[in-house]
Amino acid sequence: MISKSKLQQSIQEIFNIYAKRNYTLAFTLESINEIFEIGNEVFMRNNPEEMEKLSKRPKNKAPDIFDDEPFSFERTFEIYSELSDQFTEISPELIHKIFELNSKLAWEEYRERYNRYILEIYKDYPDDEYINYLATVVLYDQKDFSEGLRCINRSLAFNPSCAVYTHLKARCLIQLGEFEAARTYLYQSLFLLELMQDNPPKKGENKDVYPNYPVDFFTSVEQIRNDLRQLDRVESLYKYQLLPLIY
User: Which residues make beta-bridge pairs with 26?
Assistant: First the structure.
């Protein structure tokens, strides 16, 4: 991870190089690509440890967030359209905004490729705890709670003491209206965390398909307690306001 001070230093350096290479600081569509080119030079030079880590990351079949295409016309045009009303000249602040927006767009595009990949492969690995967990996160995000529940049950069969899994199962059950079962799994998650008996998600043997940059689900005691409070409110609403209307 690049520190904030190193990032600010690199942004200023990019601006200084750009200002020396160009006779005008006018913000144009073309200037974005040049900023990306200078940025690559500067970030690689200023962050050799991070570059070495990236070069040593394992190669596999999964999409990689660094397969990104920042020089595509579509990306450049989107960045320019977003920022051209706010800026007319190149400045360190603008350069920071360009990289910030590019990171956001790159992550969105990665998520699309990542989601497609996980949904394409997970059924081929019914006995892989980790793949089924990653599939649950994607399926929950896409509101396919029934299939998400089936996947997380497979993960739990291999690792029943994982608070992430029990919490995810509770979330699926809540969305499916299984409130009492959900409460049981929320308390189980709480128990595992508070008594420090939690076993985190475990990778298996299929390392060639595991993504280097997975989209994880994070749990905590505070988050579980918040879910329990929300579940109380939902149950109260159902019992005292919706149920009488049905009967």
Answer: 89
Residue range 163-193, pLDDT digits in tens: 999 999 999 999 999 999 999 999 999 999 9
> What is the rounded end-to-end Cα distance, in angstroms, of the chain?
57
14 by Cβ neighbours in 10 Å (0-12 / 13-18 / 19+) ranks as buried
Pick the closest to residue 129 from 204, 208, 241, 36 (CA basis): 204
Task: Return the structure tokens found at 38.
Answer: 């200078």
Contact by Cβ (8 Å): 129, 202: yes
Q: Tell me the helix, strand and coil percentages in the chain, rounded to 5.
A: 70, 0, 30
Q: What contacts 123, CB < 8 A, 6 or more positions away?
A: none
**CA dist 139 → 5, 11, 37, 241 (Å):** 38, 38, 37, 30
Integer CA distances (angstroms), 201 to 60, 165, 217, in order: 20, 8, 10
Q: How far is CA 10 from the centre of its chain?
A: 25
Cα–Cα distance, 110 to 99 (Å, whole number): 16
> What count of other Cβ atoms lies within 10 Å of the Cβ of residue 94?
21
C-alpha atoms less than 13 angstroms from C-alpha of 192 in its C-beta half-sphere: 21
Residues 97-118: pLDDT tens digits? Answer: 999 999 999 999 999 999 999 9
